[in-house]
Specification:
A 5-stranded mixed beta sheet has the order 3-9-8-5-4, with no helix packed on it. A 4-stranded antiparallel beta sheet has the order 10-11-14-15, with no helix packed on it. The protein has 171 residues and is an all-beta fold. The termini are far apart. 0% of the residues lie in helices and 43% in strands. The chain is globular and about 50 Å long.
Amino acid sequence: QTEHGKDIILSDTWGYNVKNQAWLKVTTTTSSTKEISGPTRVYHSLSTLYDTYTKDGSRECKILSFGGSTSENDNVALDDVNSLFELKIVENGGKVTGKWTLINPATQLKPAKRNEHVSVSYDNKLYIFGGMSGSNVKSLLQYKDIWMYDASENVWQEQMPKYDDDGIGSN
């Protein structure tokens, strides 16, 4: 928080090296000194889509960031968003570089704007559950829905779980 009482929402990007137990600021793919900035968000979710070694021995990781709230419009209240960003990180020779990209799905169908939801990835898909939106008690909405983003197809799809008589999901 600033001395004037305003919160500061950051957009810097850091990586943690477990082996060296050290935090590193992620730099752009074009400059070893320029740090990358991601979307300015709070109450968003991050999920690793994949983390693998490439043929040349470098390591590549793709992380998806969905939703959250932002104050980019200089509003006193936060604005909920439903944007999806991809962070592609490459580690090669101890240097970590990355690039943020806004993902524009192939269709207009996507989850409602929300914050404080949860996400998990599995099989090249991102799943989000729940969350809420609204800036005051009168406008507050709470979600109990499940959405899936298929990274291969670049589409969102609402999931409708089916339940057996015993209340345990069948798919």
